Amino acid sequence: MIEFPPELTVPVSGPIDARVRPPGSKSITNRALICAAMAEGHSVLVGALESEDTIVMQESLSRLGVKVQAQRDAAGNASTLIVEGSGGEWPVREADLYLANSGTSIRFLTAALAAGRGKFRLDGIDRMRQRPIGDLLEPLRSLGAKATCSLGSNCPPVELVADGLSGGEVTVSGEISSQYLSGLLMAAPYAKDDVTIAVEGRLVSVPYVEMTCRVMKAFGVQVERGDFSRFRVPAPQRYRKTTYSVEPDASAASYFWAAAAVTGGSVLVEGLQFDALQGDVEFCRRLEAMGCRVEEMADGIRAVGTGKLRGIETDMNAISDTVQTLAVVALFAEGPTEIRGVEHIRHKETDRIGDLARELRKFGAKVEEFQDGLRIEPGPLQRAVVDTYNDHRMAMSFAVAGLRIPGVVLRNPACVTKTYPRFFEDLARIATSIS
């Protein structure tokens, strides 16, 4: 267990010259855990992430009777998970599951449990009770599940009575979270008949849906689609046991690429290429547009700061988990940066538009807030004490600002345990690697 102080002062750095390998992707780990848990036989997940979001998923699977064994490396980290699949029938038919503030866990598990049989309750922290899930429950009800938000809102706790999914055609909203669609896709192979899913409205975070389909394929299940507005999953199908390697987390990589940009240094993130499952590798292209040099190497992607950044206008709908990172880089650019197309991030761990704007202003920036984004006009930089809103991405993004601005303090740095418990150790290490 890593201990964190209530507040943390970020170490100032000169131009960084480093290489780093972030831990495994949270998004891929939780998708692979669902597929492995529903598969027949033992699956091995290599390079899986160990963090709050993946631990609550593992603990919930264990409560459902699915055995998940962690193999630890020399440093004591659980780098490999062995999952004994249930074959789609949950061994435990009644359970009360706590998912903290893990959106992937509660949404994926709700759909997966609906494909089996039993009576379940899924809940989380207070913020989880403010995060919508009704757009997932509606198509599940159309497929035969009895699913309600027990407090009468559109948010958890979820009460679920499952007796398998019937199959047929359903519609799911794409405007709040792509996780609704991903959850349905992963559960659909276990329906009695084929499932067709039509997406209503603009689908946000499209690369994450592509990721879902590719993880499903790795476990032996095919999804048919022409574009991202309509999907067909032939059923019944079954996931097959497999050995699966989890990529390093590209969202986490964005902080290190950004560190190179703001310090005028160079950081190579190992284990990622532009053909990765994770769309967030495209964050590098935004840095390139701002004046950085980006190089795809045999062993990863390198970002090199040129010492001069310029503001850009960009739609970040597809890579919205990196909005906060780019917003912090914008503090050091010449001219304004405008980010649009990300209204859905208001429903994340915190309001990632409104709360982000508030913290950016502390550094001297003039920020105009839109419903779907924000415009950042840099001002004379000043130190700040950053409120993180229990949002891991707020803490890690603003840590990058502290590499350049002396005295930046982060409140509640422990929130990084959600996806990257050793983030500050890695950041301190690269901050001492000066060119």
User: What is the overall pLDDT average?
Assistant: 96
Which percent range describes the beta-strand content? 15-25%
Q: Shape from CA axes?
A: globular
How many distinct helices?
Answer: 12
Structural class: alpha/beta
Evaluate the radius of gyration.
Answer: 21 Å
- The low-pLDDT segments are none
Strand order of the largest sheet: 2-15-17-16
- C-alpha termini separation: 33 Å
Largest sheet: 4 strands, mixed
The number of distinct β-strands equals: 23
Helix proportion range: 25-40%
Describe the structure.
By secondary structure, the chain is α/β, with parallel strands linked by helices. Helices cover 29% and strands 24% of the residues. It has helices spanning 26-38, 52-63, 103-114, 134-142, 179-187, 206-218, 250-263, 283-289, 323-330, 354-362, 392-402, 423-431; strands at 7-9, 17-20, 42-46, 67-72, 78-84, 94-98, 117-123, 146-149, 158-163, 168-173, 195-200, 224-225, 230-233, 243-245, 266-270, 293-297, 300-304, 313-315, 337-340, 366-370, 373-377, 385-386, 409-411. The protein has a four-stranded mixed β-sheet, with helices on one face. A four-stranded mixed β-sheet has the order 4-5-3-14, covered by helices on one side. The chain has a four-stranded mixed β-sheet with strand order 6-7-9-8, with helices on one face. Helix 9 links the parallel strand 18 (313-315) and strand 19. The longest helix has 14 residues, at 250-263. It is globular. The two termini are 33 Å apart. The mean pLDDT is 96.
